[in-house]
Specification:
By secondary structure, the protein is an alpha/beta fold. It is built from eleven helices and 14 strands. It has a domain of about 80 residues.
Length: about 350
């Protein structure tokens, strides 16, 4: 059994595998198993891997199960102490994996961590899917150190300390195998988008921690499987955000938070309509119908989650992020930091040079 399994979920991504797998192998060190789990591709991804990288283990899942269930099925067939869920369009930096493993070994309370994620197209800019660690505001809007909504900051080292966060990005997520299985993996109902936030929330409710370790760096291409300006992506984000809140909020906050969030979603739908974006307008209402239709299932799942466990949730922003962003003009994470529930950095990683 390898100490670390780096698992890429692939769907028609032969060109991405050809571009990124060689560098991944060169920069990941020893005692690592590389796995590509194929979500029912109809290109020649697996045949190309077999011909050019036979050392990479191949798992054929048979059809497209989406990100969440695809990884659940793949990791059920992988044995390792640590799993790394890695997007197929990620370029890893030197010693990226060594830094993450060393951090996890010296922090036994940490269930999952992530590196700093930068934009492959503009290499000094943070990338949307995770940047320097994920946070959540009181009404469920996710954001990152280095990214508020669509505003991406340039990396000047301003977020280089390792800190506990609310969520780690599924673009590059290291998780202890024991914690993954104890939490039940990803929720397949999400299909794709925000499933890693749901997992990290559940891990925290179990008394575990999630951190970002910026001394490890990767560069993400982004948008390789689903267009950023996609009504379907909008549908998944709005629907899954409601799933996320309903499943994990404590009873005392569930009704008030959901009420406000549903109203804010309605305003977003009207904004899309006013801008002539009918597809996006329709996606919001489709997401709401899906949420109400799936309430019976969500209620059953909710009963199994320890909402009232005596734990501290890290990375919670106690205000409404859209108000701070659109009304008060706070466009960077550092402008929010005085009121963000950040623990003082205490990791020995913060006292070492690269």
């Amino acid at each position: 059994m390898a100490r670390v399994a780096v698992v890429i979920l692939n769907w028609n991504g032969r060109a991405l595998l050809e571009r990124f797998v060689p560098l991944l192998e060169r920069r990941s060190g020893g005692d690592v198993e590389f796995v590509v789990a194929d979500n029912g591709s109809d290109d020649d991804s697996l045949a190309w891997l077999e011909a050019h990288h036979p050392e990479v283990r191949r798992i054929a899942l048979g059809r497209n199960y989406g990100f969440a269930e695809g990884y659940n099925r793949a990791l059920a067939q992988v044995e390792a102490e640590y799993y790394v869920l890695l997007n197929s369009d990620v370029e890893v930096g030197e010693r990226w994996l060594e830094v993450l493993v060393r951090f996890m070994e010296s922090h036994p309370r940490v269930a999952a961590c992530m590196p700093k994620i930068l934009d492959l197209k503009m290499r000094e800019r943070f990338e949307y899917a995770g940047a320097a660690g994920g946070f959540l505001d009181k009404y469920g809007y996710p954001f990152c150190r280095g990214r508020l909504f669509d505003v991406l900051e340039t990396d000047h080292g301003q977020y280089d300390e390792a800190v506990p966060v609310f969520w780690a990005s599924g673009a590059c997520l290291m998780v202890r195998a024991a914690d993954w299985h104890a939490a039940g993996g990803l929720d397949p109902a999400f299909f794709a988008h925000m499933e890693e936030i749901d997992l990290c929330w559940r891990l925290q409710l179990m008394g575990r921690e999630v951190w970002v370790v910026p001394r490890s760096r990767v560069w993400h291409l982004g948008g390789a499987t689903l267009n950023e300006a996609s009504p379907h992506k909008t549908y998944l984000n709005f629907r899954n955000n409601l799933y996320l809140l309903f499943k994990n909020l404590p009873a005392s906050r569930l009704l008030p938070v959901l009420t406000v969030r549903l109203l804010l979603d309605g305003l977003a739908a009207l904004k899309f309509l006013a801008g002539g974006e009918w597809g996006f307008h329709k996606a919001v209402w489709k997401a709401h119908f899906a949420f109400w239709r799936n309430l019976p299932r969500l209620r059953k799942i909710r009963k199994s989650i320890p909402h009232d466990a005596p734990v501290t949730l890290h990375g919670v922003y106690p205000r409404l992020l859209p108000a701070r962003f659109f009304l008060y003009g706070e466009k960077t994470f550092s402008s929010l930091r005085d009121i963000c529930q950040l623990d003082p950095p205490s990791s020995p990683e913060n006292n070492k040079t690269t």
